[in-house]
Amino acid sequence: MTDPADLTDLTGATDPAVDPVEAVFDLDALLEDDEREWRERAREFAATRIAPRIAADFEAARFRAELVPELGAAGLLGVQLAGYGGSGAGPVAYGLVCHELEYVDSGWRTFVSVQCSLAMHAILAHGSEAQRTEWLPRMAAGEAVGCFALTEPQGGSDPGAMTTTARRDGDEWVIDGAKRWIGLASVADVAVVWAKDEEGVVRGFLVPTTTPGFAATPIAGKFAMRASIQCDLALTGVRVPTDAVLPGASGLSGPFSCLNGARYGIVWGSMGAARACLDAAVGRARTREVFGAPIGARQLVQGSLADALVAYETGMLLALHLGRLKERGALTPAQISVGKLNNVRQALGIASAARAILAGDGITDEFPVMRHLANLEAVRTYEGTDEIHRLVLGRALTGIPAFA
Question: Which pathway (predicted)?
């Protein structure tokens, strides 16, 4: 029989120079060289440019727009983009970038999701060549910011009930309506606005945010995502030329294809937040002493850490599996729902367990855990609530839709 002490030696858990999570879970062995390089690039940027000020930014509800060009210069805004100033890396590389950014704060992974998976993807997948050439190189460089205006005030889970309209008036389209929870809208240069035309068909429009009648107001009073921006959007007689229409998008399949890309990033990103909380809990368990020994020597604490590790490893393996499916063009919406539902749920559980291990100090900004907990509650809601993803999976299993 193996001595438990031998197991401790094998994992390297007693050596402070060894990452205890990686000692148990060797994810690197499953990654390609270029994927590890992208992870390290994102990790360095997040650690040096975002992490030193993120607690203060969260407290002050400050979004540091000056970091956007730096993200572009690092190649982190065009990771998956082939051409148009992008790097052409694969889905797993993009997922690892999301993981490292959300390790520091969900708000910055959200920025990349809105810019890349939503706005840039909409232009790449559904735009004209002229639209791609005009916007994508500048967005990849961080010289222009995009937003994605789909959700409306009455609810985000039923985009088919959209009330924003677009009507033809000679050589122009006139857009009227309201949107809510639109990330980056007040700092964006261009908005991808979804509206119903006079036949009730959902269309996408590229609307420069300087267009008269376009008004974005940041939502105040948030307890989550405080280092990023979400807005109410009013569209009052907004006039755009006919070439503002995204020619490849007709119906809800257009915005849904973009949302699936953002959800994929969340699968990886949420595990980044979870990892930050797990790291904080492991560090505290090794150093805080109670009743004459580190709390990590207590069976209940070790049990909690073990459960968190298993949940984290499971989530990362799921993310990697979905990434490999995406590489082959085989990833389905139902599989993305599995990833988003499971990984955000598990991340919240890991964060909650870490908060308990940190005890009273866990609610302070000395540690990132409460900030991640608050942010993850927002992540749980956007890009499809738990309930919607459960219904997606229920339909996949039974063949019967139960959304109404």
Answer: Amino-acid metabolism; tryptophan metabolism; Amino-acid metabolism; lysine degradation
Other CB atoms within 10 Å distance of the CB of residue 16? 11
The CATH class of 253-398 is: mainly alpha
Question: Does the annotation count 383 as an active-site position?
Answer: yes
Higher model confidence: residue 298 or residue 155?
Answer: 298
Domain 146-244 superfamily per CATH = Butyryl-CoA Dehydrogenase, subunit A, domain 2 (2.40.110.10)
Tell me the pLDDT tens digit for each residue of 134-180: 999 999 999 999 999 999 998 778 888 999 999 999 999 999 999 99
Q: Where are the domains of the chain?
A: 28-140, 146-244, 253-398
148, 225, 298, 311 from 220: Cα distances, Å: 19, 11, 43, 34
Q: Give the pTM.
A: 0.93
Q: How far is 181 from 188, CA to CA, in rounded Å? A: 14
Nearest to 176 by CA among 247, 239, 232: 239
Cα(162)–Cα(379) distance, rounded to whole angstroms?
22
Per residue in 317-376, pLDDT (tens digit) is 999 999 999 999 999 999 999 999 999 999 999 999 999 999 999 999 999 999 999 999
Question: Which overall architecture, per CATH, does domain 28-140 show?
Answer: Orthogonal Bundle (1.10)
**How much is the average pLDDT of 122-143?**
97
